[in-house]
Write a structure and sequence with these properties.
205 residues, 11 strands, five-stranded antiparallel sheet, Ferric-chelate_Red/DefProt, four-stranded antiparallel sheet, alpha+beta, transmembrane, 21% helix
């Protein structure tokens, strides 16, 4: 009986690894609220993450580099980023370019994670709408774990400069691969360890 109980506990632990951090798929139901379907409330304290962008303005059809990052040693596993009116609406503006570490969602107006590794800093290319859309802001949902996440963390204002003379800004994109700490190998090793423990219990009991 004890052996089967141990095996059940190990099995549930492995199930949690698989189900706790989905790969950012089937999230369109959360496009308006940006709330993940984790059946718990979001954190109410300040998020240890931020959204920055360059340049600080956009013109119709221009490209802006958007970066999400931690402000401490806290990593995030999942995310959703979307541009909205600075005054506040649930409508997404512009489109994100897909990367090796992200998927598009909400008709490409949002970008989400495609893996459950720990992440510290990621950058994306966002293309502004073809027409002037007023001042905007970026909102991000950061997921640290299945039960710990922050919703609609706002950026500063992205100013609409459509039709105005602006000075070109050099925005360099950092190496995002080196700033994202992947944990798939650790998860695999943990699974192997659990299997070894399970086999040991079966033999010894």
């Amino acid at each position: 009986m004890t052996t089967y109980l141990h095996i059940t506990i190990i099995g549930l632990s492995l199930f949690g690894i698989v189900t706790s951090y989905p790969n950012g798929q089937n999230v369109d139901a959360s496009c308006d609220s940006m709330i993940p379907s984790h059946r718990v409330n979001a954190q109410s304290d300040g998020a240890p993450f931020q959204i920055t962008f360059c340049p600080a303005w956009y013109q119709a059809g221009s490209t802006v580099t958007v970066t999400i990052s931690n402000t401490s040693m806290t990593y995030f596993k999942g995310f959703m980023v979307q541009a909205r009116q600075y005054s506040g609406t649930s409508t997404g503006y512009g489109q994100f370019k897909t990367t090796a570490y992200s998927n598009n969602a909400c008709s490409s107006s949002a970008v989400v994670h495609n893996g459950d590794g720990n992440k510290a800093k990621l950058s994306f290319q966002w293309t502004a709408p073809a027409a002037a859309s007023g001042n905007l802001k970026f909102l991000a949902t950061f997921v640290k774990s299945e039960r710990v996440f922050w919703v609609q963390v706002p950026s500063s204002q992205l100013t609409d400069m459509t039709g105005q003379n602006v000075t070109a800004t050099n925005c360099t994109t950092p190496d995002d691969t080196s700033s994202s700490v992947r944990t798939e190998t650790m998860s695999f090793l943990f699974v192997v360890l659990c299997i070894c423990i399970s086999n040991f219990l079966i033999v010894t009991v």
